[in-house]
Design brief:
The protein contains 3 helices and 2 strands; from the N terminus they run E-E-H-H-H. By secondary structure, the protein is an alpha+beta fold. Strands 1-2 form a two-stranded antiparallel sheet. Helix 1 packs across helix 2. The longest helix has 16 residues. The model has no long low-confidence stretch (mean pLDDT 88).
Length: 85
């Protein structure tokens, strides 16, 4: 299991900033590339753009998570992987 943390996969650990618009409001989200990969897969599976997926997550998840979108996205990625893979 710990072989997945090799130097060959260092790019998965690098935080990436992406700018998005949620209901017309610009924001920047910083997540490791591994999370962006899962979010892109989620969007594809749901037949949504990544921007629309993030907007839907923002609308529903942040009610319980006090406006911390990055944290919410990380938890949803883990739940998604646990349920669907």
């Amino acid at each position: 299991m710990f072989n997945v943390c090799s130097t060959e996969q260092v790019k998965e650990f690098v935080p990436l900033k992406r700018s998005i618009r949620i209901h017309g409001h610009g924001t920047t989200i910083r997540l490791e590339e591994a999370y962006w990969t899962v979010l892109e897969q989620m969007a594809e599976d749901e037949e949504l753009s990544l921007a629309k997926l993030l907007e839907l997550i923002s609308d529903t998840c942040l009610v319980a998570n006090d406006k911390n979108l990055a944290s919410c996205l990380r938890v949803l990625c883990l739940k998604y992987i646990n349920i669907y893979y």
